[in-house]
Amino acid sequence: HQTAVYRETSAASRHRGGSHLRLDGVTKRFGDLPVLEALQLEIPKGQFVAIVGRSGCGKSTLLKLIAGLETLSDGKLSADDQPLSAHRDDTRLMFQEARLLPWKSVLDNVGLGLKGDWRMRALEALREVGLEDKAAMWPSQLSGGQRQRVALARALIHQPRLLLLDEPLGALDALTRLEMHALIEKLWQRHGFTVLLVTHDVPEAVQLADRVIVLEDGHIGLDLEIPLPRPRPREPASPGVSALET
Ligand code: ADP
Ligand code: MG
130-168 burial by CB neighbour count: b if 16+ within 10 A, else e? Predict the structure, then answer.
């Protein structure tokens, strides 16, 4: 049984064409504290971007700006040449904790805020993350990894075009992280959304992303394309993973 879904072709390139997300001189200060300074960035549709950098370098702030949870000090954010605010509904943000409502069932958490007949869609979203059979359970009855799957389903039901992941696997054990890698990769292949993944796990960034951006002192210190085909976990290139699989 294969635990990882591999990128056989550049399937994501199907979804590409033009720039999806654009940062123009994006600057953020908290009072006197400069956090992000005139970031310039263009992200094509469907790209899987990992953002890495030391704790406190502004990674979460960057995602919050893109999600509209923080306001810019200066600069411009746009998607498809429109202000990003026009795309809020296409954008979902996921955190290190699933942030589920404990008094609602798993299914109700996935359908949170939706009107009308969302139950079938919520079930379908749960099926996609492999948790169809947990629909009636409470969040407290799930493991950390399962709760993150529910958070993913809650994002999927909105059919996002931009998925912002803020260290979503940071609190999970290594084996669960590995399973989540496979799931995130599968969903990305299938849905073709643009992903911005914040992680402090550099191997994770290289394994999952098309492109790795290093934030350093409020600037982009490194902007690396990861060539395809990427090293596969079964090959000796990643001894940690192949050891688990053999
Ligand atoms: P990272 O996610 O890379 O660890 P953050 O984006 O959370 O970093 O924070 C970047 C810097 O901005 C840190 O110095 C942090 O203390 C500061 N910061 C973040 N949010 C706020 C806020 N709401 N008010 C004041 N300072 C903040
Ligand atoms: Mg952070």
Answer: ebeebbeebbeebeebbbbbbbbbbbbbbebbbbbbbbb
